[in-house]
Amino acid sequence: MTKVAIIGSGPCGLSILRAFQQAEEKGQKIPKLVCYEKQDDWGGLWNYSWRTGSDQYGDPIPNSMYRYLWSNGPKECLEFADYSFDEHFKQPIPSFPPREVLYDYILGRAKKANIKKYIKFNTTVNQVKFNGNMFEVSSLNKKDNTVTRNNFDYIVVATGHFSVPYIPEYKGMKTFPGRILHGHDFRDAEEFRNKEVIVLGSSYSAEDIALQCYKYGAKSVTIGYRNNPMGFKWPDEMKEVHYLDRLEGKKAIFKDGHEQNVDAIILCSGYLHHFPYLEENLKLKTGNRLYPPKLYKGVVWQDNHKIMYLGMQDQFHTFNMFDCQAWFARDVIMNKIHLPSEEKIQDDINKWMTQEEALEDPIQMIDFQTEYTKDLHAVSDYPNIDFELIREHFKSWEHHKEENIMTYRNNSFASAVTGTKAPIHHTPWAEAMDDSMYTFMKSK
Ligand SMILES: Cc1cc2nc3c(=O)[nH]c(=O)nc-3n(C[C@H](O)[C@H](O)[C@H](O)COP(=O)(O)OP(=O)(O)OC[C@H]3O[C@@H](n4cnc5c(N)ncnc54)[C@H](O)[C@@H]3O)c2cc1C
Ligand SMILES: NC(=O)c1ccc[n+]([C@@H]2O[C@H](COP(=O)([O-])OP(=O)(O)OC[C@H]3O[C@@H](n4cnc5c(N)ncnc54)[C@H](OP(=O)(O)O)[C@@H]3O)[C@@H](O)[C@H]2O)c1
After folding, report:
1. Ligand 1 mutation target, pool 107, 159, 185, most atoms within 8 A of CB
2. Is ligand 1 within 6 A of the CB of residue 15?
3. What is the pTM of this model?
4. Which of 71, 72, 184, 204 most suits a substitution to test ligand 2, by most atoms within 8 Å of the C-beta?
5. Could you give the number of structural domains in the chain?
6. What does the pLDDT read at residue 425?
7. Which ligand is nearest to the CA of 275?
8. DSSP E strands, 131-270
9. What does the mean pLDDT of the chain come to?
10. Domain assignment present for 341
11. The domain containing residue 135 runs over which residues?
12. Per residue in 102-158, pLDDT tens?
């Protein structure tokens, strides 16, 4: 019997478990599945952890999510085609839910599919070696400190790529008398109330963590971009300046001459694709981009078709794109999709990468990732979902952000699965301080 190891039970790992379970439901014989998860529960980054650094066993904490995190895109863009928000919540809910609500939704489908039985929790994969025929997976059960080795025909890498921070150093950091942390270790904006905060970076973490600090009472927030400013219309207490040059004691000096006192520096400088458990020739090496190299259809490792990667792209689309990838990977493993010749694989990868390299702005990037997702969707039995509507939603969302970065989360979108139009939330995001599911779900 074919054996498949799935590493990670975040949204991507759960997508492929659900994909197999759907095939089984339809009467197909599925392979033997083992999913390894280093945390004690499922849901990946959505499973909030107060911990930073390492866990009680000395294993690095993968979690980068923080308190008061609200979805940064409309939920209608990530909805599962086979499990709608309406089905889960039994009532329409607003378009930008906080983390706990999305976590509940992710787990709702996983529970319905009864896939927990495949997951070995508290079990870290330490090594994957290919012996020319099968993969030997070594895993550590952290609770009883035992190492187990098992052989598999296929490996599905679903360990995410927003867990290992990229941490640059700036002159003066060693002697800076305040707090320096990466966004990966950021947990609670309340810590920065009345503080002068510098956030370095110009992508989603920089945007959201800067706004969080402002919302929860920081005295000032200065964002230092490296290449391009985000350029939103920030509130008065916030500004964007160009690149940190150095720190002199508590003073920060930027390349554009701006100088100011600072209490805390939050590095939102991105993450590394990090797979310490994989042999070199199986390892994806890439930055955070929309089409990582050497992955056929963004999934199958070009140099060994029995190892597949899920969710390794930079992400506009998330959960339903992960699903399309998972359904594709499942069908390759179950021999329902036959891979073309090496030459055609290379041509296909080149085609996508050439297109990706020519992209100039977020609108083109949205189009690119929508086309990529539709290309995958077309070849499996993942249920119908209106990706054209999702494309339009993403573009409206971009415009809403440009119009007003403080209010874009108050908008409402229609479902690409059920057509349901989301209600407007009872409290505008800028005034909503409590991120609990209880408060979000109750009417005001
Ligand atoms: C701060 C932050 C906010 C985000 N907010 C949003 C949002 O609002 N909306 C959105 O759509 N997306 C958001 N994302 C994007 C996020 O990447 C996806 O939503 C999603 O979590 C990716 O799923 P994944 O399964 O690929 O990875 P993860 O969620 O990272 O899950 C990977 C899993 O693999 C496990 N693992 C890692 N290494 C091993 C190992 N060696 N052995 C065993 N298990 C292992 C981890 O414990 C984890 O459970 C956010 C990301 C970050 C960092
Ligand atoms: N729900 C939410 O609200 C929320 C909140 C946070 C994050 N997220 C998600 O988290 C994921 C990761 O986002 P991310 O912003 O952490 O990573 P990212 O999108 O990969 O961006 C990395 C950023 O780091 C900057 N950078 C790299 N090296 C730097 C240096 N030496 N000095 C200054 N800046 C440097 C880059 O700048 P250049 O552009 O100049 O290279 C870029 O702006 C995304 O999927 C995002 O959607 C969501």
Report:
1. 159
2. no
3. 0.98
4. 204
5. 2
6. 94
7. 1
8. 135-141, 146-152, 154-157, 164-165, 179-182, 196-200, 220-225, 238-242, 244-248, 251-254, 259-261, 264-267
9. 97
10. yes
11. 3-164+271-393
12. 999 999 999 999 999 999 999 999 999 999 999 999 999 999 999 999 999 999 999
